[in-house]
# Entry
Amino acid sequence: MLRTPSRPPADTKIRVVSHYLKRVPASVAGVLLVTYVASVVIPVNATTVGFAYLLLVLVIASGWGFVEAAVASVAATLTFNFYFLPPVGQFTIYDPQNWVALFSFLTTALIASRLSAIARRRAQDAIERQQDVERLYTFSRALLLFDDIHPFGKQLVNKLAEIFELKAAVLFERDTGAFYRAGPWDFEGLDDQLRDAALHNSTFSDLQQQRVITAIRLGSHPIASLALQGSSMPDSVVQGIANLIAVGLERARAQDLTHQIEAARQSEQLRTTLIDAMAHEFKTPLTSIKAATTALIDNPDQSPENRIELLRIADEEAEHLTALIDNAIDMARLDTAHIEVQRELTDIREIVRDAVAAVRMEANGRQVELSCDAPLPDVPADRRLITLALKQVLDNAVKYSPPRAPVTIRIRQTGDMLRIEIADRGKGIPPEEQRRIFDRFYRSPSVKHQVPGSGLGLTIAHSIARAHNGDLTVESPAGENTFCLVLPLLAKETPLEHGAHSGSR
# Structure
């Protein structure tokens, strides 16, 4: 879109007239001042005063323009004739000296004003080019700072309209068919033109309305189209904007593809780790069930007491296997963007006992010490989810602490929050790993090949705590690791949504 003068509005005309009303009298006053000084204060000859008039006309022409300088030229000619050319005190219009003086003054006014106007215009063009470059640079930096929450196209046109002070901006993406609009004005009936520009690589412009529609090309292939209105800018700037948008759209597509690939990779990794974890944990109850049923089949004549004992073992291990399957399903369901919490007032001590019972097989006789303040109020929580969270933390404590070292659980109330602290005697966690311990699939490099695990347990627990508007933190002084699950005693109406973090030590 070329910079072209448009019809000046009424307020601009008023400002121009106001300037003339101030400058023209000032120009005449300048001529009178030179006349007074040259005739009264410091009397000089006609040649000197002629040069003084010429200098004054030159200054006025370069500073204000031709109109003011032309008025000053006529005034200087008249005063020069009346006060300095013989016969002094009379107007001699036909004297050639008057015409020479008037021609000199007017020529000086015209040339000086034209040169001054050209210089001002070039300076203004240079300033505008600098502003265009600065705006393009600002826009290019803004493209790198867009977030992943809002649509890229919407952020793009909003920033474009803000930086270039546009009245309206519309972006049409060819692949998605989406329109993104910004600015206080709105284009009407231009959707077809935008589609045509994106399909046929064409350009439309309306200089009178300061409107342009151009194709956005990646190489020679049009991928979108852009409509701008309200700010005159050269074609090079429009093409610069189009090129930046093309790069930004391609970068956004590349990021989307990367996110899809990463999501697919993590989904596959989640499936694999869950299968590995289930296979590892299912072996113990399946082995016990197999041993009990084999003993019954191989020795059908056993005493009733032995048969009952073997059946009891098989039944307990079947329940254990059912609990493992339920936990695996819960973990798979909880690895999403939102956890639905169904709160009910419940005794936290009962939840802790259920979690301890759920890990009794993994504890291998390890002592679990429980202490709590008395009395404790009931907690508004989802019993199933909190039990699962505590089981993950307890399972983590059992895995990473020495075989005969006890695990300590302490429950206490602090203000309107309930704290459940689970401490083990395991190796301390380095500070740099404490920041990542709740990340999806993260496991410490020092133990990941020594202790089996999925890298999901602690994050599932962390996500459940956040869904209850609580938190799960870790402190790790030397020789002890303490995980603290904090839950509010007053239920909030809107539980926090949590991101899909996952991790373990």
